[in-house]
């Protein structure tokens, strides 16, 4: 009875709560549970025996209808909402978990194979993009930083380990900041112009290189007002071991800078950026390093890197993959930077560099870069670097491996996989389309539009026209130009069907607009030829703006076929041409055929008939007289 009462209390609360869809996906080594909150709540995630309990500060109605659509029960046994503000995830294994937030406000819970003892300590979480907090190294010489760094959501997310900390950390940091305050460039203030007496030498922080040295390395001169960072000549490969070369007596700032450089070289750009923000420094070098960190994960606007683009090969490479890209003076500097990059990130940087060169219209330089990087060593793993270069596309197995690893190339890989299947004339499996849709909440911008386009084209190729049209309507709310293009592909495919299938599909899509006017007229004309004028009128009614001349003529023709000549004449008003004149004549003839003929005149009796009638009257009168005489006797 008590349980029944509790149920009666929970049900109305859940019914009035905000709804949150729960999505799942299976990845290599972990299962992802993604929850789409419309308004992100305060939450906690705790382990209770063999379950994970997600609690929120408000009532949430979780949609669990599709939770086992794309995953098995190897790691997750069941989902249950036992109260209005909690969700229970029953685990099938002794698994560990990690969490992070999506840019759109969703929460991701990744459940990994491995002992549960390695779970992070999750209490009240920090807000997304909040400043990270890192405890002193001396207090946490080994293991993850506590509390955990609040990392930005991204495809590269790993734990950060803290180096040992010196006892005089605070004094060293204060002294270092005091010395750097007047020397380094402010993060957004440009170059500091110092007052110098005549004949005075510039300060040590003013680093201008000799022209002969720069030209000897293969790139043009650096304007003297640009201050090149001290790491401009480094190779990314050197950053992998930079932390080992830092003396134990160095300040905490130096330690963290070296650790951030190692993360950047390993491809963990977002993590490195959060680490740099945890130890702020007003110098221009720190701003450049932060922009380099973000550039490892995505093409962003990087003004400091762009300003130092000609300071060295590394700066030229990172400025090229920024948004907007900065074209190097010589492609040899990009080749040099890529050859000095670690193997795990080299293919990724090669692809982005070639994509930027192609976007700038530098196909020749992109070809040179591809040939140079491949001739320098073994061919890179299938990382999509050659897709835009008209090479043979990677196989589906190679692309699927990239998608399974959830690397930054996963979105590009699944898009190419779908396009390869379509180019081969095959139907794209639904599981592949589901994988592509699962990636959409994690990406934005042009990359997202490309995947959406590939998915909808796959739906069209699979004759799932109604589903494709519904998705096109969603696209139209944020990318109208893409929606118009996809709408044209949809109805061109329908127009290419056989007569019976064409009519059936057009009847199902009767309330879906047709954006292209010429295509709309062609579809309506075919419906008219198939003697379905009502469908043709319905298609023409879906147009936006003033109708075309051909549309008016077709409407007039349909009006004549439906015995409505007056409407046809109205539609033809103001239209010139032989075809319009022919329709006018047909309408006039149809109207004229409706005038009734006059009644025929009354027949004129001939003389013979008149004489016969007179004799009949006379005979009748004589007979009447005889009868009268007989009766009188």
Keywords:
HEAT repeat domain-containing protein, 9% strand, 633 residues, 25 helices, Immunoglobulin-like, signal, five-stranded mixed beta sheet
Please state the average pLDDT score: 72
The biggest beta sheet, please? 5 strands, mixed
Q: What is the gyration radius calculated from CA atoms? A: 40 Å
Sheet/helix structural class = alpha+beta
Name the poorly predicted regions. 6-11, 121-165, 179-225, 375-392
> What is the end-to-end distance?
124 Å
Categorize the overall geometry. elongated
Beta-strand fraction estimate: 5-15%
Give helix % range. Answer: 40-55%
Which strand order does the major sheet show?
Answer: 5-1-2-9-8
Beta strands, count: 9
Helical stretch tally: 25
Describe the secondary-structure layout.
Blueprint: H1 2-16, E1 18-27, E2 30-36, E3 43-48, E4 51-56, E5 60-63, E6 76-83, E7 86-91, E8 96-101, E9 107-112, H2 169-181, H3 211-217, H4 236-239, H5 252-265, H6 269-278, H7 284-295, H8 303-307, H9 313-320, H10 331-339, H11 346-359, H12 363-375, H13 396-405, H14 410-423, H15 430-439, H16 445-461, H17 465-476, H18 480-495, H19 499-508, H20 517-529, H21 533-540, H22 549-561, H23 565-571, H24 578-592, H25 607-632
Parallel strand pairs: 1-5
Antiparallel strand pairs: 1-2, 2-9, 3-4, 4-7, 6-7, 8-9
Helix pairs in contact: 5-6, 5-7, 6-7, 9-10, 10-12, 11-12, 13-14, 14-15, 14-16, 16-17, 16-18, 17-18, 20-21, 20-22, 22-23, 22-24, 23-24
Protein name: HEAT repeat domain-containing protein
Biased composition (Basic and acidic residues): 207-217
Region (Disordered): 191-225
């Amino acid at each position: 009875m008590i349980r029944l009462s509790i149920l009666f209390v929970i049900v109305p609360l859940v019914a009035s709560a905000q709804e949150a869809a729960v999505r799942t996906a299976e990845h290599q080594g972990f299962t992802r549970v993604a929850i789409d909150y419309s308004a992100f709540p305060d939450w906690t995630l705790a382990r209770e025996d063999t379950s994970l309990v997600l609690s929120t500060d408000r009532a949430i109605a979780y949609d669990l209808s599709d939770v086992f659509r794309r995953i098995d029960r190897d790691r997750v046994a069941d989902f249950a909402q036992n109260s209005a503000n909690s969700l229970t995830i029953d685990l099938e294994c002794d698994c560990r978990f990690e969490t992070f937030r999506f840019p759109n406000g969703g929460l991701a819970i990744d459940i990994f194979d491995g002992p549960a003892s390695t779970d992070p300590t999750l209490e009240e979480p920090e807000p997304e993009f909040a400043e990270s907090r890192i405890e002193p190294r001396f207090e946490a010489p080994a293991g993850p930083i506590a509390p955990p760094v609040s990392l930005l959501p991204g495809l590269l997310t790993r734990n950060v380990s803290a180096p040992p900390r010196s006892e005089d950390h605070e004094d060293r940091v204060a002294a270092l900041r005091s010395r750097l305050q007047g020397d380094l460039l402010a993060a957004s203030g440009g170059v500091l112009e110092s007052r110098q007496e005549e004949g005075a030498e510039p300060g040590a922080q003013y680093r201008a290189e000799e022209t002969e040295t720069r030209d000897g390395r293969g790139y043009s001169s650096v304007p003297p007002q640009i201050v090149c960072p001290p790491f401009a000549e480094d190779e990314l490969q050197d950053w992998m071991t930079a932390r080992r070369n830092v003396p134990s007596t160095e300040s905490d700032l130096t330690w963290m800078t070296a650790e951030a450089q190692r993360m950047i070289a390993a491809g963990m750009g977002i993590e490195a950026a959060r680490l740099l923000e945890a130890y702020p420094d007003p110098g221009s070098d720190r701003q450049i390093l932060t922009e380099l960190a973000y550039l490892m994960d995505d093409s962003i606007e990087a003004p400091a890197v762009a300003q130092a683009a000609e300071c060295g090969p590394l700066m030229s490479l990172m400025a090229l993959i920024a948004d907007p890209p900065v074209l190097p003076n010589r492609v040899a500097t990009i080749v040099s930077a890529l050859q000095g990059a670690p193997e795990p990130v080299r293919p990724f940087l090669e692809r982005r560099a070639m994509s930027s060169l192609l976007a700038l219209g530098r196909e020749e330089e992109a070809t040179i870069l591809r040939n140079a990087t491949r001739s320098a060593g073994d061919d890179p793993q299938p990382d999509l670097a050659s897709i835009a270069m008209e090479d043979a596309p990677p196989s589906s197995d190679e692309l699927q491996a990239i998608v399974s690893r959830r690397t930054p190339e996963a979105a590009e890989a699944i898009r190419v996989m779908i396009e390869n299947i379509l180019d081969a004339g095959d139907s794209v499996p639904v599981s592949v389309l589901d994988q592509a849709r699962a990636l959409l909440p994690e990406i934005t911008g042009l990359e997202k539009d490309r995947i959406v386009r590939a998915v909808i084209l796959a739906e069209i190729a699979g004759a799932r026209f109604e589903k494709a049209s519904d998705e096109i309507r969603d696209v139209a709310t944020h990318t109208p130009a893409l929606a118009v293009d996809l709408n044209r592909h949809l109805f061109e495919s329908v127009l290419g069907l056989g007569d019976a299938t064409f009519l059936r599909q057009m009847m199902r899509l009767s309330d879906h607009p047709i954006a292209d006017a010429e295509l709309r007229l062609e579809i309506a004309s075919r419906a008219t030829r198939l003697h379905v004028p009502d469908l043709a009128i319905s298609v023409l009614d879906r147009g936006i703006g003033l109708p075309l001349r051909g549309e008016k003529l077709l409407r007039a023709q349909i009006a004549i076929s439906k015995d409505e000549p007056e409407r046809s004449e109205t539609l033809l008003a103001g239209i010139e041409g032989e075809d319009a004149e022919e329709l006018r004549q047909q309408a006039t003839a149809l109207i004229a055929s409706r005038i009734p003929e006059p009644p025929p005149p009354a027949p004129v009796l001939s003389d013979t008939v008149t004489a016969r009638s007179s004799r009949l009257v006379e005979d009748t009168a004589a007979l009447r007289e005889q009868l009268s005489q007989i009766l009188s006797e």
